[in-house]
Amino acid sequence: MNGRVVALSDYRGTPRLGTAIEAFFSDKQLSTNTRRAYSQALSAITDGLGRDLPVDQLDSRKLLDVFQQRWESAQPSTWNTRITAVKSFLSYCRRNRWLDHDPMALVDRRRQPRDQTKAIPYQDLEALWSRRKVNLRDKTLWKMLYETAARAGEILALNVEDLDLPRKRAVIIGKGGHREYVFWASGAARLLSRYLVGRRRGPVFLTHRRPNVIPARGDECPHTRRGRLSYERASTVFKQATGGWTLHQLRHSSLTHLGETGASTILLQAKSRHQDPRTLAIYTKPGSEAIAELTATFDT
Hints:
Number of strands: 3
Strand order of the largest sheet: 1-2-3
Radius of gyration: 22 Å
Shape: globular
Order of helices and strands: HHHHHHHEEEHHHHHH
Strand content: under 5%
Distance between the termini: 58 Å
Number of helices: 13
């Protein structure tokens, strides 16, 4: 953890839950999407237990009740993401010696079944790119996500100033706040040149209409006065257009297809920017279409 540790002497006794959460977000260096997800989880905790509850009085039974009330029917991935957020906060509290027990002792992670069909077949993606009814913004975003193999939040956070269009690359803020490069190919390059006509500054991907509420600083296009496209809206549009595919599947599909063409683990790690090469195992495993093609090749 890179942020400073807030000394217990900064507060009169153990801080209240709301105060501790504010200190956590102030000290912790989080990406925009991680901060949003952690905020959702910790806001639910304060709603259920109260902002004025002393941190050292967090109770495992009450925390379990909050989880069951808020996320009992949620997908295992959502349940586990909320656990990760709360545990990160509680670890911060223990480092500051506000807490000497584990309030999450009764909250267990849920098993997430593996989806062996997660990679989208390339011919299905080609059909998606060729749809005439898909508007330019969405097609540009989808193509960029696939060709960069970047996380959706990283690409949605891009500003025009971050793009190096001639060299087909951009600087993004990755996990941990690190500045990293992503690279795209000619398909996204052609779409970007059309989509960005007349714009030199501001968010790359914009809403279709001007917002009713003034966007946060940096999230408004100075040329059109439209706001930055949110992850939630981009995800909804993609699911509706594809019958349920997720934006993350574009990243997964890109890396899987690269692995099928023989890209080495080292290159896949560089492309995906995974810290641990072991996490690349799901991408180096050939997809169903590659296995089907292999089977057809030896069909006698």
